[in-house]
Amino acid sequence: METDLPNSPSSSPDDAFAPDADFSDLRTAADEVREEIHRILVGQDRMVDLLLAALLADGHVLIQGVPGTAKTLTARLLARTLDVDFTRIQFTPDLMPSDILGTSVFHPEESAFEFRKGPIFSNVVLIDEINRAPAKTQAALFEVMEERQVSAEGETFALDEPFLVLATQNPLEHEGTYRLPEAQLDRFLFMITVDYPSLEEETDILAAHHAGRTAKNLDAVEPVLDAEALATYRAQVEAKVHVEDALLDYIARLAQATRDHAALSLGASPRASVMLLRTSKAWAALDGRGYVTPDDIRAVAPAALRHRLLLAPEEEMEGRSVDDLIERVFDQVDVPR
What we know:
Blueprint (H helix, E strand, L loop, with lengths): L23 H14 L7 H13 L2 E6 L5 H10 L1 E2 L2 E5 L6 H5 E6 L4 E6 L6 E5 L6 H13 L1 E4 L2 E4 L5 E6 L12 H4 L2 E7 L4 H12 L14 E2 H14 L4 H16 L3 E3 L3 H17 L7 H12 L4 E2 L1 H5 L4 H11 L5
Parallel strand pairs: 1-9, 1-10, 2-11, 3-6, 6-9
Antiparallel strand pairs: 4-5, 7-8, 12-13
Helix pairs in contact: 2-10, 9-10, 10-11, 11-13
């Protein structure tokens, strides 16, 4: 469950000093994306904010939650707000790597093979129920998610930018599912956990359905960002959001603390540190600031770390969660002043 954290990017706090860069266009675009998504989606504000941060940080997202909590719907709505190519792949136990990446087709008249690209060659790829495919198919995603390319028949085929994988999975169902390997989990920028809506939100969901605002009305959602604009905003976040050296040290000390923590059998990798840096910069930009604060880092940390840490067996037996450990680590590491 996502906990309420300080410094939501949809808020407008009084900053201690003016940002070094003007992020007003970026914030306007983000607000337009939120508005389009919420034409259909009720609630789930934090999930939408994290998806926007991942979009700006150029990273893939794993959305985890029980059925019926709008995981797939939210991914489809985000894709609708982007004026780019979109494909959806339903993972099943009999899915083969070639069903995703593509396959070579022989042309007798030319006595030659031609590589026919699979559905992964798109800008936004929704993988529904990613944990239903076997290990061989999961491994087919390693190269494409990390290096944005597919190697086949001795050739390398680059994917077009932007390239974003949005994957969903149900953590409670085990029959016919396969656990994602750690190497694949580490390729996701975020794991977003989706909880049940509040009573008020569920009442609003019922009212929306009663009024005819359902997933069947996706055509009402208009694209507001194209590939060129997204690339511009990503470059702005990368180049113009300042991070103090003390905060770089803070991120490093947080990662080190997870590796030394007795309650964790696997700590954060250096890749996790980089992801914390990139996403905290995106979070700050969404808030209109040209500088990162410790609150930005803490805000994105659960989604950036929970799938990269493994609890020690005794901690699991005690019923503790990775999110609990992340909170404990933050409480133990001194915040820069």
